[in-house]
Amino acid sequence: MQPPASSTTSSVLTKRPFRASLAPFDAHSFQVSCEPKHVALTFEFDPKHPSFETQFVYSPQAKSKLYACYNFERERFRYFGADQRFQAFDKDNSVRLSYFPTKNALSASYHIQADEKNKASAHIWFHDISKQGFGKREERLELHSNLEGNDTFRIRYDLQKKVTNLKLTHELNSRVLLEGEYSYFSKDSQAAAVSLTKQMDRDNVLKAGADWRSRKYLLEWTNNTGDGPWIVKSSLGFQQSLRDFDIQLKRKISFAING
User: Fold this and answer.
1) Backbone angles phi, psi at 253, to 5 degrees
2) Is 90 exceeded by the pLDDT of residue 72?
3) Bridge partners of 99?
4) 163-173 and 76-88 strand pairing
5) So where are the chain's domains?
6) Around Cβ 144, how many Cβ atoms within 10 Å?
7) Secondary structure (DSSP) of 114-136
8) What is the pTM of this model?
9) Superkingdom, according to UniProt (predicted)?
10) Which of 95, 129, 148, 228 would you label with 81, given CA atoms 20 to 30 Å apart?
């Protein structure tokens, strides 16, 4: 629903400066990483809800990954799927297919390394594949570019909702990264987020930021151990007291498969 019409831009921004959500797919996005001939397990615990689930990733070879996520409290899989990399058009390509049983939904992604600095991708999300024509769908195009040094720029565009999302990562020095993100829904509806990441020492990384999409402060600490990282995420609403903060715990371990 759009905000009420206003005679001036400033009055509109006073009433509703930001949207609650940033872009489609984000709620269903997840990372899949694993070394070849390894199994990676990521355990996630949310004490406030509470919720406990684990992601399983198996990489039988360098170009293939199989993965699944199981929620122990609900006793069901949240998603499972496969990644496959291959060569085509003299370029590196990859395809990801994911199925979400609880939503009877399907997502597919295609990535191509256009050149040394640019990577393009296309994503499609079918909300209910039991319906004729796979039901409602969302589509997104994305371009990721490596700039000078270690700086990066990413642009996303949602074809159905006509939402544009921009993200810029700038390396302040060898230990500090600054990230800024902006989304444009319409002239009266926008979103922004900013964060700072600092490498404290060899094993510890601290990230802090503010997200006007959800109107929350964000804090994340990663501690890298010999067999995988511990990750602690916390958030606090702009108008909340300290006792209302949310926290999530993640633990990732990885081990080799013989043979």
Assistant:
1) -125, 150
2) no
3) 80, 106
4) unpaired
5) 9-35+88-256
6) 18
7) -SSSEEEEEEEEES-TTSGGGSS
8) 0.78
9) Eukaryota
10) 228
SS3 1: coil
User: pLDDT tens, 2-58?
Assistant: 343 443 333 333 333 333 333 334 545 567 777 878 888 889 888 777 678 899 999
CA distance 119 to 113: 4
Question: Residue 69 is encoded by which pair of tokens?
Answer: 């996520």
Paired tokens of 122: 């296309």
Residue spans of beta strands (DSSP E) within 89-203: 91-100, 105-113, 118-126, 137-146, 152-158, 163-173, 176-186, 189-199
Backbone angles phi, psi at 103, to 5 degrees: -105, -5
Lowest mean pLDDT among 1-10, 64-73, 244-253: 1-10
pLDDT tens-place string over residues 195-244: 999 999 999 999 999 998 889 999 999 999 877 899 999 999 999 888 88
